[in-house]
Amino acid sequence: MAIFRYPSGDGQNGKVSYNTGIISGIVALAISEIEGVALLPGKRKGIRLYFEKDGVFADVSVVVNYGFNIPELAFRIQQAIKHNVESMTKYHVAKVDVHIQGVQFLNEESEVAPQPNE
User: Fold this and answer.
1) Using CA atoms, how far apart are residues 47 and 45, in angstroms rounded to an integer?
2) Residue 64, helix vs strand vs coil
3) Residue 32 to residue 102: CA distance in whole angstroms
4) Domain that holds residue 72
5) Between the CA of residue 63 and those of 23, 32, 68, 104, what are the distances in Å?
6) Integer Cα distance of 72 and 78 in angstroms
7) For residues 47 and 11, is the Cβ–Cβ distance under 8 A?
8) Read out DSSP for 31-63?
9) What is the pLDDT along the chain (118 residues), one digit of tens a residue?
10) 8-45 burial, b if ≥16 CB within 10 A, otherwise e?
11) Whole-angstrom Cα distance, residue 63 to residue 101?
């Protein structure tokens, strides 16, 4: 569990505790908003977070769709994660490493095709 302590303006001290799953959810949400990218399937979903003095370090592993510019997608993923985590929490994102684990080729058969007349 990650804990962030900050003094309140009225002189009372308090703490806000974020479960690591909350931050992982914010990271997953940021990635899901980007077209052409999908998280790795499974329980762990390809997200690893490290909480250090300098801030949050995120390692994400994704699969990209064929035809998208990979360096541009990786940059957009980094920016989206940084923006979402910093705007929804009081954490500073120090580093986001994006690992492209593969390229997904969409099947033409999976698209809806008109049925031939019988």
Assistant:
1) 6
2) strand
3) 17
4) 2-105
5) 21, 12, 11, 7
6) 10
7) no
8) HHTSTTEEEPSSSSTTEEEEEETTEEEEEEEEE
9) 565 555 555 666 777 777 888 999 999 999 999 999 999 877 667 999 999 988 999 999 999 999 999 999 999 999 999 999 999 988 999 999 999 999 998 775 444 334 444 4
10) eeeeeeeeeebeeeebbebbbebbeebebbebeeeeeb
11) 6
Residue listed under structure tokens 């690893």: 48
What is the SS3 assignment for 93?
A: strand
The model carries a pTM of 0.77
> What is the total count of domains within the chain?
1
Does a structural domain hold residue 63? yes
Whether 96 is in a domain gets the answer: yes
Instruction: Flag whether 116 is in a domain.
Output: no
3-class secondary-structure state, position 101: strand
